[in-house]
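Following up on my earlier thread - several people asked me to post the actual chain instead of describing it. Fair enough. Here it is, all 89 residues.
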Amino acid sequence: MRARVVAMLLLTPVLISTALGVVYTQHVSRSLVVQLQEQKQGRDDLNIEWSRLLLERSTWATHARVERLARERLGMHTPSFAEMEVVRR
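Reply from S.P.:
Thanks for posting it. Predicted structure:
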């Protein structure tokens, strides 16, 4: 009987510390899962923004837009036949 009491007294702190360890581990695990989800959401947001930026870049670089800006801002035009010069080597 005395051996059982001693065993109970020795194992009770071990049991409590193990239970606290499990609780702490679950807490840390849940915190890390939340951080992971936030990081994934951030990644998805950045991918969406990157796609928008690629689309915007392609829009700014269209041939028609570049040609229009060359005409409007730089005063460029397609040369007439008389303005053309052929350079031969």
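Residues 2-60 form the longest helix (59 residues). That should answer part of your original question.
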